[in-house]
Every structure is written in C-alpha cells, then in structure tokens.
Amino acid sequence: MRWLPRPGLSGNPRVADIGGQNNLFPSPNLDKRYDLLSISELMDMKGGVLIGAGAGPFFDLGLNIELMPNIAFGPASDRELRNCTRYAKVLDDDSALCEGIGTSTGCALMCNLLGCDGETGSLLHIKVKGRRGKLNFTEAIQKGLADVYGDRLISLGGVFVARSGKLKMHVMPDFPGKPFKNRGEVEQWLRFFDMDAPMVCLTVLHSGDDKALGLRKEHTHCFGADDPEENRRGGHYHFDLDETMDTVEYEGWLNVAEILYKID
C-alpha cells in the first residue's frame, strides 16, 4: 500500500470518533481544534499509523478544507514524523484542488481515525467489480456485516482504491458568514464534483448498535492516485455514478478495531 506512510495496517488496531457534525451545524464551532499526535495519546498509542477522514486545520491553513489524515510517528517511523496527509480545498473559480499538507498535524470540528502499529498482517481484503443496487461500497460492507452480526457493534478502518469508474465527491468551501438555517442549506453550501478513478480512499465505518454513542457511521475521504501536478483530485466520498455502475471496481484492505474511542 504505497500511498500510506507504513506498509501495513495491523498491530493493535483501534478507531476514534472525534468531535462531530454538530461542530459544523448550525454554526462552525471554531474552538474545536485538535492535533493528531495529541489524539494518538488519548488513543493510548506510543507510535504507529493514523489514517482517516476529517475537517482540516483552518487555523494553520487559513481556510476550511477536507482532510485525509495519513501519518506515521514514533517507533513506527524511526521516531520521525512521516506526514503523508493531504487536503482538498475549493478554489476561487469553484474548482477543487488536493495537495500535501506539509508539516501540520492539525484537524478541526470532526475526524474519524484508524490507529495501528503500522505492521503487516492479516486484513479484510475486499475486491469487487460492478455494482448491483443503490448501495455504495462502504454501505455494502456495512450491510454485509449487519446481515451476519446483527446489532453487534463492529468498527472497521483502512484504505480502498476505486480502480475504475466515476465517483461523486464533495469539498467544503470556506466557512459561511452566517449560521445555517437547516440541513438543506448545508447541502447547498457544499461543492459537489464528479471525479474519475483511480482514487485512493481512507475510511472508518461502523455496523450495528452504537449504544447511543452518536458515532458517525461512515466517513471516507479520497485523493487521486498518481495525479499530475495540474489535476490533483480529492474530497469526501459519496458514491459511484450510475453511468459507471457496470465497470466500477473497488479493492479494499480493512482492519477490525479492537478498541473504540469517543473523543470530544
């Protein structure tokens, strides 16, 4: 998995649900500022890998963004930070651009993370081609888990690649100047894009009853695989388009979390 800072996603797998969508609606709570390395301490990690999806560090970059956390730290990276995190932003012409974040390890508002030691090991390897029905890739995984395990809470995290097809994505623009009146206004505020595969997607998802923890059941952010400098794609994953449902192809590597953390 050459897009990650370590070759594996095994070793003490755990997931964290940080903040939440209530920090965006009805008004962004700009006091909700986080740091991935500080979060790792709350997750009882002394080093390893963190990947996932969240809102980016507006306080470092000067604007609201979609974040693809992707770091290795501590003994897993020879005690040096390997920061492969990317972010997607909306440009002045309403197009989207995805690029590396540099040195920042910040995030804000909401974030969903898989943490592990970054070792190679057994993972759930899922490979599919062609879609039948309305469920997207992550929803199909959730349904499969629910069909077998019912209400038992199961949490997964990892990476999948959309190898072919076209994906519906959104990118948050900068924060609005006034509170949202309703959820419909949030949808109108988001910028939606159709993006061609291949895309690399970092995901955290849950199936079953979360016992009123209020978990975000799925959160996935993607970036273009091997994009040229002038066409770097990325954003929040929604689904693949019907026009490519016969040819869409996904391949994923997911681990089952042993521990779940809920962090405010």
Automatic annotation (TrEMBL):
Protein's cellular compartments: Nucleus
Primary localization: nucleus
A GO MF term: zinc ion binding
SMART domains: DUF1907 (SM01168)
Keywords: Hydrolase, Metal-binding, Nucleus, Zinc
Pfam families, per the entry: DUF1907 (PF08925)
UniProt cross-references to SUPFAM superfamilies, sorted A to Z: AF0104/ALDC/Ptd012-like
InterPro entries (alphabetical): C11orf54_DUF1907 (IPR015021)
Residue span, DUF1907 domain: 4-263
Superkingdom assignment: Eukaryota
One CC-aspect GO term: nucleus
Subunit structure: Monomer.
Name of the protein this chain belongs to: Putative mgc81809 protein
Organism: Diaporthe ampelina
